[in-house]
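Translate sequence into structure tokens.
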Amino acid sequence: MTFHEALLLGIVQGLSEFLPVSSSGHLVLGQALLGVQPGDLVFEVIVHFGTLLAVLTVLGDRIRGLASGCVRRDPASLRMALLLLVGTVPAGAIGLFFEDYLTLAFQNPAAAAGCLVATGAVLWSTRYVTRSREEIGVGDALLIGFAQAFAILPGISRSGLTICAGLWRGIDGREAASFSFLLSIPVILGATVVKAGSLIADPPDWNVAGPLLIGLGVAFLSGVVAIRWLFALLRGGRLDRFSYYCWAIGFASLTVLWLST
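Result follows.
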């Protein structure tokens, strides 16, 4: 992978991780377009770690407040920590037991394009939902957690599916987005730790490490921009507007892949 390819894919990752358009789907399709081999998903994990740093930066005050509240045994903070744990379990279980299948899925551009079309349909379904509350319950956290589990597949937007799940339950969009981003922390961190072992045991040379660092940095910067933009959009906008983009990219990619066979 060249530095220019890492720069482009890192920007795509950072913007699409938090906007409801599937970062993993864009990475798979982008790699197919550029002729980059996905390999063992190290680059995908590295740029996802960049977006994790973006979450920690933008939501830093809330994360610190939650952590300090748990130390003080504040009931509201402990309740939120429990909800995040409930929401994390489904994705963690699926990632643990279906790692081999997921590796194959990340090498299939047609599957990613089809999943993008499905993401567009999910986003469209929120067109007429009503949002009336900010408090998240155990049932909400479990539904959002299962939505995150499905989003492990490339082309299924994690932020899109989890925020949509919150909207279906009548949760305010900005609160659903905050919970979604907090929920991404243990999943991304876990995947990074798993891959970090192989990187430490067999460190890459500069030709490989350089693009990884470039991808991480630009994924972080573009991720910060994307999070802040999405919060602004959720004040008055609707997620269903992103469905047109997902459909356009998905159907266009399927057409290009079909013509190239």
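Note: The chain is about 80% helix and 0% strand.
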